[in-house]
Amino acid sequence: MSALKPDVDATPVILAENLTRRFGDFTAVDHIHITVQPGEVFGLLGANGAGKTTAIRMLCGMLPPTAGWIRVADVDMVRHARRARGLIGYVAQRFSLYGDLTVLENLKLQAGLYGLTGARQRERLEWALAHLELIDRKDAMAEALPLGYKRRLALAAALLHEPRVLFLDEPTSGVDPIARQRFWELIYELADGGIGILVTTHYMDEALFCDRLSLMQAGRIVAEGTPDELLRRPLPTPILELDSPDAVAFEQLAQTWPETREIIPHAGQLRIRLHAGTEASAMTAKIWAMAAERGLTVGALHPAAPELEDVFVAVLEENET
Q: Given this model, what pLDDT does residue 2 score?
């Protein structure tokens, strides 16, 4: 979570109602609603193909919706998307700057496109190079940068004009854990400064960093709330956590139990997801009895606290039925 709370009483910086996009007979985004407040980090979570990128491209004014309406930074993005150009920043999923220019040349070009000149341009370039830790790479060719630095450069370019709203489409996909952590620290700093941020991701651990989340499946939002609210959702499929030095033997046994829906090795333990309607207490008793019968050791056995991935899987399964 960011250090400062989003201003829930302020006018939303992103507001979309019944947002829909069809490509022929295929509906990529299906009547979704999104609200983002100033200073809020809002996450769209979903598997590849869920409709996240199509949604973000409509919100940025890059793709017209088939139906619905959008306001970003008080601008009607369906009718007047050009007016919002100086108010929003966008970091695409793929690196979209010029590989045959240096870091500084790319930033100067972007600054010029945003109308920054003279002392103001120099000030913003210095800020971007320092804040995104690019000073030592300013003369490096963009194409030769490691992926983490390419992401920083793209973010620096998106922030030169001090936007009110920032869109980040899978901003840390493919980068190493340290670079991901640094990127999220930067996101928090920006949110604390009042920027409304919408980020798409398929990383469950990153989703936990957002103030609010919407889970997308097949173009629809199927669940939404804060991470804590989503984690408190009752799961239709109970999960048991088993800690045992005989975990391999238990995993082989669990594959034969009719109550078992899925077995998830987890941090040296087994997480056993049960079919809906299975009583966790009855299954616990069965495992203890089987352990005694076969001479297997149980270190600990108890219902598992759900993780966000458990909630996500359960929500997807509910909406597939």
A: 43
d(CA 306, CA 199): 23
Tokens, residue 98 = 């010029």
Does residue 178 surpass a pLDDT of 90? no
16: its two tokens: 């979309």
8 A C-beta contact, residue 192 and residue 198: no
Mean pLDDT of 273-286: 94
201 has a pLDDT exceeding 90:
no
Nearest to 21 by CA among 45, 43, 48, 52: 52
- What are the pLDDT digits (tens) for 284-300? 999 999 999 999 999 99
Q: Does the pLDDT of residue 4 top 60, yes or no? A: no
Is residue 1's pLDDT more than 50? no
- What residue segments make up the domains of the chain, in order of their start? 239-305
CB neighbours (10 Å) of residue 302?
11
What is the rounded CA–CA span in Å between residue 265 and residue 278?
20
Distances (CA, A) of 255 to 112, 271, 273: 62, 12, 11
Annotate 25-90 with DSSP letters as a single string: TEEEEEEEEEEE-TT-EEEEE--TTSSHHHHHHHHTTSS--SEEEEEETTEETTT-GGGGTTTEEE
> What is the third-level CATH fold of 239-305?
Alpha-Beta Plaits (3.30.70)
- Per the rule left: phi > 0, alpha: psi between -120 and 50, beta: everything else, 293 is alpha
Matching residue, tokens 């046994």: 253
Q: 320 versus 280: which is more confidently predicted?
A: 280
Q: What are the tens digits of pLDDT across the range 258-274?
A: 999 999 887 678 999 99
Distance CA 40, CA 4 (A): 9
**Does residue 58 contact residue 70 with C-beta atoms inside 8 Å?**
yes
Nearest alpha carbon to residue 160 among 97, 99, 113: 113
